Amino acid sequence: MNRPVEEWASLVPMEDDAPTAFLDVRDLRIHFPTDDGLVKSVDGLSFTLERGRTLGIVGESGSGKSVTSLGILGLHKGQHARISGQVWLDGEELVGASPEHVRRLRGKKMAMIFQDPLSAMHPFYKVGDQIVEAYRVHNEVSKKQARKHAIDMLGRVGIPQPSERVDDYPHQFSGGMRQRAMIAMALSCDPELLIADEPTTALDVTVQAQILDLVRELQSEFNSAVMVITHDLGVVAELADDILVMYAGKAVEQGSARELFTAAEHPYTWGLLSSMPRLDRDRQDRLVPIAGSPPSLINVPEGCAFHPRCRFCELSAPRSLTEVPVMTETSPGHRVACHLEPAERRRLWAEEVQPLL
Amino acid sequence: MAAFIVRRLLAAVILLVVVSMMTFAIFFLVPRLAGMNSDQLALRYVGRGATAESIEATKERLHLDDPLPVQYGRFVQGIVVGDEFNYGPEVVKCPPPCFGYSFRNSQPVTALLIDRIPVTASLAFGAAILWLIGGVSVGVLSALRRGSVFDRAAMSTALAGVSLPIYFTGLLSLALFAYHWKLWPNGVNYVPFTTNPLDWAYNLILPWVTLAFLYAALYARLTRASMLETMNEDYIRTARAKGLRERTVVVRHGMRASLTPILTIFGLDVGLLLGGAVLTESTFSLPGLGQLVVDAVFGNDLPIVLGVVMVASVFVILANLIVDVLYATLDPRVRL
Amino acid sequence: MTISDVSPRPADAGAPRPPLLEVTGLTKHFPITRGVLRRQIGAVKAVDGIDFTVAAGETLGLVGESGCGKTTTGRMLTRLEEPTGGRIVFDGRDITHLSVARMRPLRRDVQMVFQDPYSSLNPRHTVGTIVGAPYRLQSVKTEHGTKRAVQDLLERVGLSPEHYNRYPHEFSGGQRQRIGIARALALRPKLIVADEPVSALDVSIQAQVINLLEDLQDEFGLTYVVIAHDLSVVRHISDRVAVMYLGHIVEIGPRQAVYEKPQHPYTSALLSAVPVPDVTRRDNRERIRLQGDPPSPIDPPPACPFHTRCWKAQEVCRTVTPPLVEFAPGQRAACHFPENAPDGPYEPGTDSIVAPAS
Lengths: 357, 336, 358
What we know:
CATH topology of the largest domain in chain B: MetI-like fold
Strand order of the largest sheet of chain B: 1-2
CATH class of the largest domain in chain B: Mainly Alpha
Largest interface: A-C, 48 and 45 residues
Shape of chain B: globular
Strand content of chain B: under 5%
Radius of gyration of chain B: 25 Å
Order of helices and strands of chain C: HEEEHEEHEHHHEHEHEEHHHEE
Strand content of chain C: 15-25%
Number of domains of chain B: 2
CATH architecture of the largest domain in chain B: Orthogonal Bundle
Oligomer: heterotrimer
Mean pLDDT of chain C: 86
Distance between the termini of chain B: 6 Å
Largest sheet of chain B: 2 strands, antiparallel
Number of strands of chain C: 12
Structural class of chain C: alpha/beta
């Protein structure tokens, strides 16, 4: 497959040598041909993730964050999606690997937790049987052993009376218990990479807090690499060590969680931070929304994809209208794709954005 | 579950009573409302060469002069405890379930029904197996290879299948296979299974295929739609994310969910057909319930019509009940 | 706490007016039947006797977790659901059991905005038809014709008048929610019940819709009952907040009081569970973690519904139902051991302008 080498040449090493990071995604592109045109869901995304660390991927619907996670797991059927770039997991490249090989890794080396645990579990099979199934694909064990393991897992994720609940159907569980069971299923084969796609969006706050605690505990116990995909900045603030902000299929800002919450540099990140009402601040009279709506992924705006909605677009015009900004390091570990001068960005953050948060 | 079945059986009995009343009314009440008196009614059943005495005797035997509720009561009584008929010197006993005697040839309706049911059942069950296997497998394959040549060809054929009436496909197949290629040189003649199973099957092949073609087309379309929907469900994605083989994903997760609704439609269709596959039976001259009821309707033979309608209703109601119970067993979310 | 915190609307500055909406003992039980005869063997006590009032021009936020009865309450207020018991008095009229026909004129005054902007708009109708429907249904004549009125409305909610002939699928989620709001506004209602108006929207769009709702309130003097599970949204938009748990209101009061000095332990737990977008607080936040899930509303715990999950629960909580008691001006909670009321119940003095409802 010919990888289009485009202008984004960033700090990520471009050589094809095996990387040192546990998960290393390089120039990932996932495009879907449709009747209306080519949907560029993910368009040149690169990031790395180490064992024991948590990466939060933040973005709105259509930013490409979920498509990225499915792409890493190889869950897009070959004929419909055009995938290019590289996904290195523990020294193995997955985009070019055979589907059968990726299937063997799925569920074992990398596992996923989905947003809505009710629709993500098969309604006709018992919770326990679904966990047993996940365990037995990758482990040669008897049904009895697998069942014991399933009960174990259910107990570990905090389901009361696991030896009885193992025979319940998903609809007999509450939302929070279903998500716990889903986590038990994902963790049944001790995956080294865990991807959680909006793991708490469908849950109530008190249950959400329980699930976030659980993910945190399990991560420290299993020392796995965790990717949390969410639109909720509160959730990433609770979980993530590093944050990647996505907009229209591209990364726009990336850095440590502390850095992004205290010294964000991309106007889109600013917009996200200031548009949400926050309980930890005094109530503002007015929220500061981001104008307009997320772009169509078929006709992504020219230049910086965010420019039609950007409050500071004029400051970097006309480059912002014509030239796609590249991810550039502004301080160690903190990269931003914006045409504004770094000094200007820091000034705007300090003078115009942060005071209003 | 038990309470559900009891409740449904009670409802079934009420439904059967209503069905019988309506059928009864159509044949007895409507002619009276149209101005016929009991003599004219009796005349229909005596035939040519009627004398005043024979008309009187027929009226007497069929109780045509009794008030309608009494007549209806006798009909119900016949089904539940049996009836007696007075043919002048001799009295004929009719054990329950007694649907009376054919007005036209005086045969007991129950015996006629028992005679005809195996024919219809052979036709219905044989065709059902064919169309279930054919329709579902084509539907599943079409869904999995959506947009492929196979899918388009299958769906075009299916569209033809649901649009062409049985008497067209039936007569066409008779003309081609039986008369032109002489695969069935003597046409289709029903042979009971107990007489010769091979002959039974040989003679039923054409009717089975003809009837199954229509339903298979319908089922292929239904299955395809249901399968497409299921394969887009989140739990299919979960199954893939577990690392299951695609075959396991399709069979254990996809088909299990998408075929459950198909199975329930299947139950209802078979129940309906058991009451008489009218078109197929008349096209192939099979002596089944459908034929019987068509003849009886044209001959004003009320007891037979009533009998067939009751039997057909029982089949449909039973099929419904079985389907509901089956659904509750297959889908744990359904509580009866 | 100052008076302006409680009720910032000028309408309330003068003599106390009768509330626009007054709800007493409102109850909704969904029967559960079993057996051959379908005997009723129990009921889902979705809403189990709640009281509250909403003054004209005010926003009341209803918060709680799924299954607490907040949506059922909203549906009863708009009479999409028939109450099992209690009273709803709207603008001086008892509307609890009005027939559909008698309710019809009132539909002009009470409108609903739904959660899902995708399923609440008929995909086969144009925006003009959808937003203009209330005029036709109520046979309202407008000065320059319905079309002109609809276009004015579209403009008012931040859409363009040219959108008149477009279909819902051509719009994004946020725009659809604006269409839904325009439809609700068409007849200049007095009360809008908004059920999760922004929860299906992206963060950046949520803020747009919230601002729009606030602008419209100021412009048309609307009264809102906003039902939401997102505590930050509710704090932002509400003047007063009612916290529901298992069909009961466990705490109700002015926004600032409820959020800063919650009285009911459940309110505290809810607030403490909200993830805060501030990494610096991650490790030193004081958290209250509730265990398990809310009990089933079919068989709610006796006495205080929260005692099964409450860390403060004592014997009295299992035996005596705590009444809603005023612990601070206008702030009432149903708890034997309130969080922030060391002096016990508040004695209404002259400084309170919020008349106790009971």
